[in-house]
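F.,

This is the one I mentioned.
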């Protein structure tokens, strides 16, 4: 009797933990890092990493990883259903059924198949509860998918629009020179406002719907992480090195960006320094920064005279988001960022005869970093 009671309590604990996992993942409107969901996503990610090895071309890795988020999401309810079958199976066993029959009855009840009827005391009530939970999980997934794809569509609209101004993968140098050439740098103000709102929405959706982090853009050269980095770097370059009147909206865009990336990293338990020193090292070295300023100057963009101070100011901005940006690049297998690719201005990427030509060839697209977590 004691053993049966303990087994029944174990079954109830498994059921309760599974329902809590579903509620935290699908219902609670905030970033809840559920352990059961994390285990599944990590296991699926390891399987995908075996296929999308660093030795393979980026285009092949991108095609493989495009399925990671959707497959992991579809496997999650199946994982929960298996746990519910096990939990209710233990309860049926504690009520007097053989274990094999208990699991068969549990599976039949959960999926509302009706193959078996639990012919034990309290069996019908237990079966009704199990069937209701199974239907609820399926209903949650069905209602969850439109929310996922709605948020994905809104995110990707801005990422796609960025290609018009910054090419793909996006480059701050291309964007600044193109805006200077076409509309003047004062037009950047509207972009900073639009991207501040974009960062706020990405923070909310990608921490409450974390699978979105792994949903890749339709084009291999596009990535929401690259887009975020390009916008913040553009604002940091303009604020530190371009000789135009100060626009506080650029500061707000940078702040909105690094707060969003930090909170997403916090959800995935990626460590970072919340209070970095302006003198801390960053991924971009002084030589690459100087090259960027040379390209801007050659394209006619007014550059400040004191480049030493410009470098200190740029590094002071960049240090706020450098670590989290690089971590998310590795996590999502994003393409090579702008500072590790040849730097070109909009004058070089625009074809006078046909308007535009691709900036990056397929062999230039390389996923960032050899490692990635789930």
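My design for it:
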């Amino acid at each position: 009797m004691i053993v049966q009671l303990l087994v029944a309590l174990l079954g109830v604990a498994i059921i309760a933990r599974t329902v809590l996992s579903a509620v935290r993942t699908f219902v609670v409107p905030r970033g809840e890092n559920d352990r059961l969901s994390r285990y599944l996503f990590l296991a699926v990610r390891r399987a995908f990493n075996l296929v999308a090895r660093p030795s393979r071309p980026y285009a092949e890795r991108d095609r493989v990883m495009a399925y990671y988020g959707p497959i992991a999401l579809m496997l999650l309810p199946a994982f929960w259903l298996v746990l519910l079958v096990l939990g209710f199976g233990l309860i049926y066993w504690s009520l007097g059924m053989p274990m094999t029959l208990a699991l068969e009855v549990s599976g039949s009840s959960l999926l509302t198949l009706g193959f078996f009827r639990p012919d034990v005391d309290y069996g019908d009530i237990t079966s009704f509860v199990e069937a209701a939970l199974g239907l609820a999980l399926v209903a949650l997934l069905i209602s969850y998918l439109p929310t996922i794809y709605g948020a994905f569509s809104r995110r990707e609209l801005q990422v796609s629009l960025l290609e018009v101004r910054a090419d793909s993968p996006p480059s701050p140098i291309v964007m600044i020179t193109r805006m200077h050439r076409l509309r003047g740098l004062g037009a950047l103000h509207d972009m900073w406002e639009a991207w501040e709102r974009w960062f706020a929405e990405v923070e909310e959706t990608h921490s409450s719907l974390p699978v979105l982090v792994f949903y890749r853009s339709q084009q291999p050269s596009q990535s929401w992480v690259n887009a975020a980095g390009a916008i913040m770097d553009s604002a940091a370059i303009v604020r530190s090195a371009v000789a135009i009147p100060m626009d506080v909206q650029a500061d707000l865009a940078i702040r909105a960006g690094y707060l969003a990336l930090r909170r997403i990293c916090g959800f995935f338990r990626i460590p970072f320094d919340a209070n970095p020193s302006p003198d801390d090292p960053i991924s971009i070295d002084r030589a690459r920064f100087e090259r960027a300023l040379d390209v801007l100057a050659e394209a006619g963009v007014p550059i400040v005279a004191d480049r030493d101070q410009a470098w200190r100011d740029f590094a002071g901005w960049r240090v706020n988001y450098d670590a989290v940006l690089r971590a998310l690049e590795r996590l999502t297998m994003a393409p090579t960022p702008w500072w590790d690719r040849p730097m070109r201005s909009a004058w070089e990427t625009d074809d006078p005869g046909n308007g535009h030509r691709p900036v990056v060839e397929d062999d230039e697209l390389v996923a960032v970093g050899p490692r990635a977590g789930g």
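The longest helix spans residues 123-166.

Talk soon.
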